[in-house]
Amino acid sequence: MVPIEIVPPRRVSTLEDPLPTLYSHSRLSSFENCPKQFHFRYVLKVPQESEGIEAFMGKRVHEVLERLYVFARRRQIPSIGKVVARYYAFWEEHFDEERVRIVRRDRKADSYRELGARCLEGYYQRHFPFDGDETLAIEERVIFELDSAGRYRMQGIIDRLVRDRDGTVEIHDYKTGRYLPPQKQLDVDRQLALYQIGLEKRFGPDQPMRLVWHYLQQGKRVSSTRSPEQLDALRADTIGVIERVEAEEEFSTRRGKLCDWCEYKVYCPEFGGSLPPSEARTRKAKPPNEKAAPGDDQLDLV
Question: What is the pTM of this model?
Answer without folding.
Answer: 0.85
